[in-house]
Design goal:
Chain A has 283 residues and is an alpha/beta fold. Chain A has helices at 36-52, 67-76, 94-111, 132-140, 196-204, 255-269, 271-281, and strands spanning 2-6, 9-11, 17-18, 25-26, 32-34, 55-61, 80-84, 117-121, 143-155, 160-167, 170-177, 180-184, 208-210. Chain A is globular. Chain B is globular and about 85 Å long. Classes of the chains: A alpha/beta (283), B alpha/beta (434). The structure holds flavin-adenine dinucleotide (2 copies).
């Protein structure tokens, strides 16, 4: 089977800085990593490949330096890495990103083997929208399985897949047709460590690099800034809270007593609120 | 599958390993470089001042794209007590030359850039991989094992560029573990400030930069120094002392740094900055006498792993680069004549080093570590106070005649240390400086 994993190179949020004066994010010099959620997608794909045979291709859209992330993915043992890079993609929001990626996935299917499953992470740690996976599924008309915590079974003859999906209040077991798109939940597996041979092969591997034309991206109006209706109005760092959190001891209290005690605490601290709320309640 | 074989395996992607791998790859050797960090530089700590001359010898046009912060136009040497410093400053517009001589850098960025060059030159790099063992056959090093699954990787020569606390050579019995009185422990912080604030505080503009090197009571009687370097939008500040002194006094490095930052001469320079990085690292400071055996059958040691640091001049990365380059040149010569990488042949590396500034400088200061250590309570305790008091006495205009002031100053030194003590310190300093 052929599994395509979309990964995004993101700044290591643990080391990101906000410019103290301009309030913009200072990306320069901040180390980049593979979006942590995407590692679960890579491992899930590798496990399926190990079980059923086939190939795993990783795909990223980003600047040329995103090659670092692809090379790292190769050290985990994926078979092929594709970098989609073109100035025309700069400034892409989730709509434009999912368009470009979907076209590249089609191209990967034509160039190599037909694609059975597209994996993405649940979301990224920088954009955080969780929209790109579903966006790709919609454009490629794939079944979408989001927030997947595990793949139970793949039936290659019957072209079906059964997965566990974490939902509010429980776990759903879902069966779907292949091909499909899966967005993988965090904490569901642990990325493997490639052997020394894999690491050597990764260091040598040729990274397939496509610009828009090579990837068969035809409608340039859907790409980059032009294809991105999202407008960033302002970026700012939240100001640190002046007050420390207060811990209210509720040991042994009834729910009513807890509510009363909590409200008392709040009203004590913000005396005007009680009046305002009362006024509001009275119309 | 038979194990793969390389001409050379370089362990580590700091300045020493990168210089070595680059030089070898440029000459067409089959080089594998192995680095344990997530990316080159992720594990590395430096002040950091980078000396252009030594990099030029490896990558002549490095200025085109290397991530450089500021070129240095001013050097301040401060001898400090708790409230003052007595200083020597040297500033010159001559340092605003076309190809400046010294730069501040940020190692994480610099090492990454250097590593890209190494890979472009044709060396193979694998990251997040720790070399765990050297492999021997008949007393000769024939390859390495790593913490990844799989077998040995073979090579004609293994270059240990593993830094000061690399354990590979030690584990194999090729290099003694550095002793606590030959390594300093330094802590360092990065303080972020807008570039215009830095420029006004240090009286500089554009890419100009200032270095402050400091010694005195800031190390509380322990042998060590402090530093403050200007980057584009940040200030690196740090302090370090011999590990053996920390052990003796029970003081923690960060306490020294906190006090250094609060010093009335330092605090205004970093006021209002946002601290974003905190790092600690060892510095080999044992000098010439601490340099271990540098070569053997199938192996050589370069950089900090070989104790190549000139602590007086705060030079380390340049010695690392130079030893890495020279080792590569020696290996290339042996390879070109299709000879064996025996200890005898690899002694060429040592011979070439003896001809270079590296060994000459280390030799010059070979007595200094012992002197500094022996006189540490004076050098980093009583003398800075005496010097400071003397300067204050001299500059304060209070109706006392100058002759009496001179006498007072001389008396204060004699009282503290005695004529013999002073003479002995002076003589030892002069001798160890020669
Ligand atoms: C308010 C806002 C403003 C923004 N402004 C800008 C801007 O001005 N300029 C700019 O360049 N960007 C901007 N971005 C970022 C950009 O829109 C998104 O980062 C990008 O479209 C991907 O969305 P995401 O990071 O939310 O991914 P998500 O939808 O959270 O990602 C889900 C999964 O999709 C996959 N994926 C996502 N992106 C990629 C990719 N590039 N390649 C391969 N796989 C991928 C990964 O598997 C990931 O786990 C902005 C984002 C937001 C929310
Ligand atoms: C606080 C501080 C300030 C300094 N300031 C200056 C300065 O201003 N100017 C200057 O010139 N020098 C300075 N130095 C000294 C300078 O940093 C060193 O001399 C220099 O980094 C030595 O380079 P190296 O390549 O030998 O070692 P390192 O830079 O330490 O590199 C060794 C590399 O080997 C890797 N490694 C180790 N073991 C293994 C293993 N088993 N397997 C795989 N990889 C391994 C490490 O991860 C590391 O990347 C300073 C040092 C410190 C600590």
């Amino acid at each position: 089977m052929h599994l395509v994993v979309c990964i995004k190179q993101v700044p290591d949020s643990a080391q990101i800085r906000v410019h103290p004066v301009t309030n913009t994010i200072m990306r320069q010099g901040v180390p980049t990593i593979i979006n942590p959620y995407d590692l679960f997608a890579i491992e899930a794909a590798l496990r399926l490949r190990d079980k059923h045979g086939g190939k795993v291709t990783v795909l990223t859209m980003g600047p040329p330096m995103a090659e670092d992330s692809l090379r790292r993915a190769l050290t985990y043992g994926v078979d092929r890495a594709v970098l989609l890079t073109d100035r025309a993609f700069a400034g892409s929001d989730t709509l434009a990103t999912s368009y470009a990626l979907s076209q590249a996935i089609l191209k990967i299917g034509q160039t190599y083997e037909p694609v059975d499953i597209v994996f993405t992470g649940k979301q990224t740690i920088d954009g955080d929208t969780a929209q790109v996976g579903p966006g790709i599924a919609k454009r490629l008309d794939l079944q979408q399985l989001t927030y997947v915590s595990g793949v139970n079974e793949v039936n290659l003859e019957g072209k079906t897949i059964t997965v566990e999906r974490r939902a509010e209040g429980g776990v759903q077991i879902l069966k779907s047709n292949l091909p499909c798109l899966i967005t993988m939940l965090e904490g569901t597996n642990e990325i493997r460590r490639g052997s020394i041979d894999v690491a050597l092969a990764a260091a040598r591997a040729e990274i397939v690099t496509w610009n828009a034309a090579a990837a068969g991206v035809a409608e340039m109006g859907k790409c980059g800034l032009k294809g991105s209706p999202t407008v960033v109005k302002r970026v700012f760092a939240p100001s640190p809270r002046a007050d420390k959190a207060k811990i209210i001891d509720i040991g042994g209290l009834t729910p009513d007593a807890i509510a009363t005690k909590t409200l008392d605490e709040i009203f004590n601290r913000l005396p005007t609120i009680e009046k305002e709320l009362t006024a509001m309640a009275q119309g | 599958m038979p194990a793969e074989k390389f001409d050379v395996i370089v362990v580590g992607a700091g300045p020493a390993g990168n210089s070595c791998a680059y030089t070898l790859a440029k000459r067409g050797l089959k080089v594998l470089q192995i680095e344990r960090g997530e990316y080159p530089g992720s594990k590395n700590v430096q002040g950091a001042i980078m000396y252009a001359n030594m990099l030029e010898k490896i990558i002549p046009d490095f200025r085109d794209d290397a991530p450089l912060e500021r070129h240095l136009i001013e050097q301040r040497l401060w001898y400090m007590d708790d409230s003052s410093y007595t200083g020597v400053h040297y500033r010159s517009d001559d340092f605003n030359e076309e190809a400046p001589n010294r730069y501040t850098i940020i190692r994480a960025q610099f090492d990454k850039w250097f590593s890209k060059k190494v890979q472009e030159a044709g060396a193979l790099l694998i990251l997040e991989t720790t070399v765990t063992d050297l492999c021997f056959s008949g007393g000769k090093v024939i390859g390495v094992k790593t913490d990844r699954a799989g077998g040995t990787i073979l090579a004609d020569v293994v270059v240990m560029a593993e830094g000061v606390n690399g354990v590979l050579g030690t584990k194999a019995g090729l290099r003694p573990r550095p002793k606590p009185d030959t390594v300093a422990l330094a802590v360092k912080e990065m303080h972020f400030l807008p570039s215009d604030v830095i420029e006004s505080r240090f009286n500089i503009s554009g890419d100009e930069g200032v270095v402050i090197e400091a010694a005195g009571t800031i190390t509380r009687g322990m042998a060590g120094t402090g530093f403050l370097y200007t980057n584009k939008e940040s200030i690196s500040i740090g302090i370090g002392c011999l590990v053996s002194d920390f052990a003796l006094t029970g003081k923690a490095p960060y306490e020294l740094l906190e006090d250094f930052k609060k010093h009335p001469a330092v605090a205004p320079l970093i006021a209002g900055a946002e601290v974003k990085e905190y790092a600690a690292h060892l510095i080999p400071e044992g000098g010439y006498n601490a340099v271990p055996q540098l070569f053997g059958d199938g192996w050589v040691i370069v950089g900090d792993a070989g104790q190549f640091v000139n602590a007086v001049h705060r030079e380390g990365s340049n010695l690392a680069m130079t030893t890495g380059r020279i080792a590569a040149e020696a290996i290339f010569q042996i390879k070109s004549r299709k000879d064996k990488f025996s200890a005898e042949n690899l002694s060429l590396y040592q011979k070439m080093l003896e001809q270079s500034f590296v060994m000459k400088d280390l030799k010059k200061y070979k007595r200094l570590p012992d002197f500094m250590h022996g006189a540490r309570d004076r050098l980093f305790g009583s003398y800075p106070e005496l010097v400071s008091k003397a300067a204050q006495n001299w500059f304060r205009v209070d109706g006392k005649d100058k002759k009496s002031k001179e006498k007072e100053i001389v008396r204060s030194f004699v009282k503290a240390r005695g004529v013999r003590g002073l003479a002995s310190d002076a003589w030892k300093l002069a001798r160890s400086w020669r």
